[in-house]
Write a structure and sequence with these properties.
The chain is an alpha/beta fold and 186 residues long. The protein is built from seven helices and seven strands; from the N terminus they run ββαβααβαβααββα. Strands 1, 2, 3, 4, 5, 6 and 7 form a seven-stranded mixed beta sheet that branches.
Length: 186
């Protein structure tokens, strides 16, 4: 979605793009499908990366172009075994190239904002230092947030859904509405 804000005599346009990484977004995902639909219904572009690249052969140039057109980048994904889906890792490797995303001449993402929208199957209490998994959501996401030091991306507060395996329909609808609000925030 493109938001316009008037600043003095200039009109600033902000484009938010959701890059959705779920291997079964349209046939098996409940939480990520609901979030992606909420984003799309609100007018945001949602790129279903697994549908675009089912063979894991990523068109890095096309993805870089989509990133360049975006002011706010949203990476939406489930956490599997305390990691991202495999295609997200491949996407990082192929798309965030030296000389484009980082390095002495790699400034394409400098100053763009990014939101991680991650869903966790277990409940929030499980992701505490003394919880069942002895790790926090922040620690699980740390390998991703660390890319800010190479790319100049500005990480915003993540949108986290915990307990996704047991979310009621009502709670899921509330999460979808909250997601729309996060995506629409200036």
């Amino acid at each position: 979605m493109i938001k316009e804000a008037e600043v003095g005599e200039r009109i600033l346009t902000m484009k938010t793009t959701v890059f959705a990484f779920h291997p079964h977004l349209n046939n098996g995902s409940r939480v990520n499908a609901s979030l992606a639909k909420a984003a799309s219904d609100a007018g945001f572009e949602v790129r279903d990366i697994y549908s675009l690249y089912p063979d894991f052969v990523i068109d890095a140039t096309a993805e870089q172009a989509a990133l360049e057109k975006s002011d706010r980048i949203v990476l939406q994904f489930p956490i599997y075994w305390y990691q991202t889906p495999a295609l997200l890792k491949q996407w990082f490797d192929d798309v965030l190239e030296y000389g484009w995303a980082y390095g002495s001449k790699g400034h394409a993402l400098q100053g763009k904002t990014i939101v991680l929208a991650a869903s966790f199957g277990a409940g929030a209490d499980d992701y505490q230092p003394n919880g069942r998994f002895r790790t926090t959501v922040e620690e699980v996401l740390k390998p991703i947030t660390t890319i800010q030091y190479h790319t100049g991306l500005l990480f915003l507060e993540p949108f986290i859904v915990t307990g996704s395996l047991n979310l009621s329909d009502e709670a899921l609808a509330e999460q979808a509405q909250a997601y729309q609000a996060v995506l629409s925030a200036e």
